[in-house]
Amino acid sequence: MTDNETKTPTPTRGVPVDLGDGVPRRLRYSLRTMREVRQAFGDIEQFDAHDENLGKLLWFGLRHEDDTLSVPQVEELVDLEHLTTIMEAVTEALGGKALAVALTTPTGATTTPPENQSPREKKS
Q1: Are residues 110 and 104 in contact, defined by beta-carbon separation less than 8 angstroms?
Q2: For the chain, domain boundaries
Q3: What are the tens digits of pLDDT across the range 7-46?
Q4: In contact, 71 and 55? CB cutoff 8 Å
């Protein structure tokens, strides 16, 4: 493979994710799940990371293990403290498709995690 070629992401059987509740979970986005994600949100690379969307995106990836899990339950499990780590697991489970996730601080200011910042943002 040359430097100009891109590596095709390898499908996963699930990526471990810790939602902070001590329950071992794996995120998995099958072809069927990805079709449902696109129907719900459109192009995943244009994903709009509002609270209700994040919970639903996580739910799509978690429901293969627990069909009784609901979006409100997922939203209640996730604390902002763990959000960056969780979104890294989501990105890996999506085959490396990076999601630009803006986080809102308790003061209401919006911040972007360092791994999702543009070069201009990193300089500030």
Answers
A1: yes
A2: 15-123
A3: 545 555 899 999 888 899 999 999 999 999 999 988 877 7
A4: yes
